[in-house]
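User: Could you go from structure to sequence for me? I need the amino acid at each position, not a summary. Structure tokens:
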């Protein structure tokens, strides 16, 4: 199982960023997926979930209305579109397979002026 995040970076408040996660080594379409982040000095926080078919999504209150999770089962990719970014969104973002046994290496997102 391999999960590889990409798309992180440094942006200014109010800007947008899209994270991607390339999955391999398992049948991607059979698993729900989750984005988790860890802000500096804080614990892990579940950001968003999507079911295996992509029809059901869940968001943390802190990102609801600003972030959109999606998946492409044909290409084995998971995405997180992040709009109206705030400094408090600064964190390492992890792509996690359903069951939480497999995690990506993380992508740093920094929101700062």
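Assistant: Here is the amino acid at each position, in order:
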């Amino acid at each position: 199982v391999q999960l590889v995040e990409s798309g992180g970076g440094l942006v200014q408040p109010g800007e947008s960023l899209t994270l991607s996660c390339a999955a391999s080594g398992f049948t991607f379409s059979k698993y729900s997926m989750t984005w988790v982040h860890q802000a500096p000095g804080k614990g892990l926080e579940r950001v968003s979930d999507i079911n295996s078919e992509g029809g059901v999504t869940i968001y943390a209150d802190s990102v609801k209305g600003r972030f959109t999770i999606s998946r492409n089962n044909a290409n084995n990719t998971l995405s997180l579109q992040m709009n109206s970014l705030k400094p408090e969104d600064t964190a390492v973002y992890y792509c996690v397979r359903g069951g939480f046994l497999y995690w990506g290496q993380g992508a740093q997102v920094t929101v700062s002026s």
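One structural detail worth keeping in mind: The CA atoms of residues 1 and 20 lie 16 Å apart.
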